[in-house]
Each structure stands twice: as C-alpha cells, then as structure tokens.
C-alpha cells in the first residue's frame, strides 16, 4: 500500500508539496532499490496520515502518533526519507497537553 501525503499544507511536520509520496519522490525509489531495505519510519508516517484523516486534520489530536514518528526519526533520521519534515527537537506530547488545556480553558470561558 502506498501512502499519499494529505493535501493540507499547514502541517509543520509534512513536506510542502501535496499529492506526492509522503516518504519522498523518485529519490525514495532510488533509495529503496539500492539499499534493498524498507524505510524504517514509513509505517509511522502512514499512521500519521490515518490519524489526521480520522480527526479532520486536527494536528493536535494526532500529536501522540507524531511523537511516535519523532522517536523513530531520532533513531533513523540519517537513513529515513520519511523524517525530512519532522522536528526532532520538538516534544509533541508535552505540546498536546498544553494546547488541550488551553482549548478547555477557552471553551469554559466562552460558556460563561
């Protein structure tokens, strides 16, 4: 199964070109044919796409999955083309908690 990148351009961890293979372009095919191995983070990249589709592209709701991808990229960023858009120094789970707290506070203040 080929993963296709979502067309949302606002996601900070995704490559900027839409409608391309999420894990790269023809260079990915070259990498795969010469190395005889699979990209170690491709499955994590596909999980991000699935999560985003299921949550109407609300990036925050997928930060746990994105953090899993970041962890894969911390280990494999030198060989995984899927890692090109992941910010390795970002803690997505901590950001998720902060953002969800802020959303809840805003929701409560709007209710009054």
Q: SSE string, helix = H, strand = E?
A: HHHH
State mean pLDDT (0 to 100 scale).
77
* Structural class label: mainly alpha
Q: What is the straight-line distance between the termini?
A: 48 Å
Rounded radius of gyration (Å): 16 Å
Instruction: List segments where confidence is low: pLDDT < 50 over at least 5 consecutive residues.
Output: 5-22, 24-34
Query: What level of helicity do the residues show?
Result: 40-55%
Shape: elongated
Question: Percent of residues in beta strands?
Answer: under 5%
Strands, count: 0
Largest sheet: none
Count of separate DSSP helical elements: 4
Q: Mind explaining what this structure looks like?
A:
The chain has 112 residues and is an all-alpha fold. The protein has helices at residues 26-35, 42-54, 63-76, 92-111. The model is unreliable at 5-22 and 24-34 (pLDDT under 50).
Short characterization:
The protein is mainly alpha-helical and 112 residues long.
Spell out the key features of this protein.
single chain; 112 residues; mainly alpha
Summarize the SSE layout with pairings.
Layout (H helix, E strand, L loop, with lengths): L25 H10 L6 H13 L8 H14 L15 H20 L1
Helix pairs in contact: 2-3, 3-4
